[in-house]
Amino acid sequence: MDRFPRNDIISLVDQAPRYDLAESVGPDLQLAQLLADDGMRELRLGYGSAAGEGALRQAIAEAHGAAPDNVVVTAGGMHALFLAAFLLCDRGSEAVVASPLFPLAANTLRAVGAELRTLPLRFDAGYQPDLDSLRKLLSPATRLVSLATPQNPSGVAISRATLCEIVRLVAERSPHAYLLVDETYREAAYGDAAVAASAVDLDARVITTGSLSKCHGVPGLRIGWAITRDTALREQLLTAKFSTVLSCGKLDEWLALRVLQRREHILGERREHLARNLAITEAWVRRESGRVEWVRPDAGALCCVRLRREVFDGAAVERFHRALPDQEVRVGNGRWFGEESRVFRLGFGLLPAPELTNALERLSTALKAASAD
What's the CATH code of the domain at 297? Predict the structure, then answer.
């Protein structure tokens, strides 16, 4: 039995092409940037705490306006999503997800037998949720509403006012449900742009999840978290974490704490990098506006671009995707995320600015070849 349906996004963990515009991360942080002292020599490599090392939980809590006892450290953000799905959704219970979305967020819910109800997010509406549509999807059988802000693949954020209204709707229509808000990209702002406040303080039945993978550049550490002010749920998350992985790696947690101790410096550098690359991407979209359109992201290292219907019929869309390997370029096909294939996720955060410029020029070559009669 296939508990987890295959999705071609798995290719992102295989060999990357020369110009990878499918990735959703920024540049990888290097280990040398964290080893300014030799404190690692004294690190004892026994079991860690099931909740996560205390100083690490304190640092995570401070970044979210929460308390350390609200935090459970997990083996990456996906582990947090899985634990929430496993604890809150029985076979036959309902869960609401927004689409397009990171496909593994839906796979975890399907794996535990939840019946998914999908809230469509539309390119032409700027990927903003329609609250009337959400209201119709909620029912007394709903156990979890799972959203992301900023979203993957679009980088579009949901405003705090809208999140407050969603909390109200869930409480009114689905009194036994929790609202999960994946905030993986929350701190990946552009330059000096303000960082949105965490949703964790909106209600006791809100769970926020995140990780060090996207904003901080250390996906290899596999450190994530779930934060909730619901004491009983936090205890369930703690027990479920212990029952699946016991604890996270002591070395991973030690390095994760060093990342967060240097948080302002690391995030500051990366926000400037993202701002530069966003400007390059925006200029490219303007130059190619006869062939493509986009939804400008609010944060994160990614955005959604759409091939114009008046230029690209179905055959031309397929020609475009087939032309990319010859240009040594990869983008994220919209089908990976529940979108149509004429939309693609463009990851502008991974490459240095000169390489991003080269990659976009090659993307233009593929566009021209695919749109030619």
Answer: 3.90.1150.10
Residues 80 and 220 in one domain: yes
Is residue 98 domain-shared with residue 216, that is, in the same domain? yes
Q: Establish if 1 belongs to a structural domain.
A: no
**Same domain? 242 vs 306:** no
Tens digits of residue pLDDT in 102-146: 999 999 999 999 999 999 999 999 999 999 999 999 999 999 999
CA dist 145 and 219 (Å) reads 26
pLDDT in tens, 224-254: 999 999 999 999 999 999 999 999 999 999 9
* Residue 100 · residue 341 · CB < 8 Å: no
Q: Is residue 295 included in any domain, yes or no?
A: yes
Beginning with the edge strand found earlier in the chain, give each strand of the sheet holding 94-99 in spatial order.
71-74, 224-228, 206-211, 178-182, 142-148, 94-99, 115-120
Tell me the average pLDDT across 318-325. Answer: 96
Are 146 and 257 members of one domain? yes
Residue 293: give the domain boundaries: 8-27+265-371
pLDDT grade, residue 14 (50/70/90)?
low
Residues 190 and 315 in one domain: no
